[in-house]
Amino acid sequence: MTIDWSQERILILAPHPDDETLGCGGLINKAKRAGADVHVQFLTVGDTRDFSPAGLSTAEERYGEIKRVADHFGWDSWDIAFPGDDYHLRLDTVARVDLAGVIERYSSLSVAELEPTIVVAPHRTSYNQDHQVTAEAAHTALRPSNTRLRHHPRLVLSYEEAADQWRYDSCPAPSLLVELSDADLDAKISAMRLYGTQMHQHPHTRSEPTLRSLATLRGMQGGVALAEGFHVMRLLV
């Protein structure tokens, strides 16, 4: 299977700022280099207590990071559906009909408005509750129906993050590998550095050695040097 990335309009669903880079930063860079349109729908962002020296990353800091990463990759647009502390790390308190509705039609970056050819979402087996409900809402929003009445992206993928792998039975092996160049992986690492509040020293699931190791593993599984792994939810050829 080959993909002409120059012809694709890609919608990436990210529960929080940095998930799109962790899960598919290499794909983003590869697709943008080829001329694809790439749009990122964040679900939420807010203040976050963390293990950084400050002990807290603020929503204002995260917005600044998004803008720098968007410029770095050259995204065509991005949006945050549910901003603020009422939703951040609390998306599991939002009714799925509302989450699915934003993804399906009630957003400037919804499937109905954007009509993407490819949608990429988090995998449902993540330990993080915001990731889980985003994945399930995407599953609902992208459900099969009459293509004459609703837009159907021909390729729907779930991305993986290293943090998903810590429990051996939690996440199946990827069913699609996207080959990356050294430049694609370097761009992914550089973008994570721009997410300064989220990048960590090794050993951590969001460290540079972890990201490089996972790309090397997935590349080996495909017989190439580097790759990102995805789970196919729909492929129409």
Automatic annotation (TrEMBL):
Record key words, sorted: Hydrolase, Zinc
Broad EC category: hydrolase
SUPFAM superfamilies referenced in this protein's UniProt entry, alphabetically: LmbE-like
GO MF assignments: hydrolase activity
Protein name (database record): PIG-L family deacetylase
Keyword presence, Cytoplasm: no
EC number: 3.5.1.-
Lineage: Bacteria, Bacillati, Actinomycetota, Actinomycetes, Streptosporangiales
Pfam families registered for this protein in UniProt: PIG-L
